[in-house]
Amino acid sequence: MIRLTAEPALILPEEHRHRGEPSDWAKMTRPGQPMHSFLEAAFFDEDRNLWLSDVPYGRVFRVSPEGDWQLVHRIDGEPHAMRIAPDGRHIAVDYRHGLIELTGPDSFSVLSTGLEGQPFLGLSDMCYGADGTLWFTDSGRTSLSDPTGRVYCLTPAGDLRLLLDCVPYSNGICLSPDGAWLYIAVTRANQVWRLSARLPDSGQPMVGTFLHLSGGLGPDGLATNVRGWLAVAQAQAGRAYVFDALGDALAEVRLPEGQWTTSVTFHPDTPNRLYIVDAQTGSVFTSDIPD
């Protein structure tokens, strides 16, 4: 495994940095600390815009290929992640409201708050499969002392299914490029789990530990590229890791500043170019991973 240092690429402009009282979410996660933003859930759209969610202040940003920041959504909520659905809708997992659709610059509608008698704990991350299935995590405040984090899928027909309910903080989630495998960041166990995306007709699927990491808080955001590489943002460690499809380590990428590593994504046109988000500085860094 090689060690690399990422290069600065983008930084949240001053006009978008919150200067007032921290939100309730900010107070819960970083007690006593000011929080200008907490950027998460990076992804590229078809036009190569980079999207980022700002959890504590209910914002979703779009950054153009030229580096221009635009505030697209601002709601009274806590969107941990947003993705563009196959039909073009902006769907988000919101820690406070559940699964929502962002219907305008400052509006949203709630799609689901959980199964009957089993409300969401606090949603965390999401990804879409090629068939339109939505996979998402429900972490709440779970941990090794309360390993009850969940993983769900929502079919294109609208059927919500609970897949796992035994996860010590289910966080980042992504699919392998062929759609065969689902990866889940298990933050409080410092692991990445893997299961087949071909689910049994009923009951919970078999799941195993794909990676066991150390240091920091544990894995947060995940991303794969067309080569099957898996990138892992190691929370509170100022670094990201890249592994091949067999789980062998390819690279460790350290940030020149900031330790709140939250999210990773590969550029769609340059599969080995990794983008890494640091929430502490409100920055995005890049690194090219050698073949």
- The global form is globular
Number of helices: 1
Low-confidence stretches: none
Which second-level CATH architecture applies?
6 Propeller
Would you count the extended β strands for me? 27
User: What integer is the average pLDDT?
Assistant: 96
By CATH, the superfamily comes out as TolB, C-terminal domain
Helix/strand class: mainly beta
The proportion of residues forming helix, as a percent range, comes to under 10%
Describe the protein in words.
The structure is a single chain. With 291 residues, the protein is mainly β. The protein has one domain (2-288): Neuraminidase (6 Propeller), CATH 2.120.10.30. It has one helix and 27 strands. It has a five-stranded mixed beta sheet with strand order 1-24-23-22-21, with no helix packed on it. A hairpin with a 4-residue loop joins strand 26 (273-278) and strand 27 (283-288). The protein starts with a strand and ends with a strand. The model has no long low-confidence stretch (mean pLDDT 96).
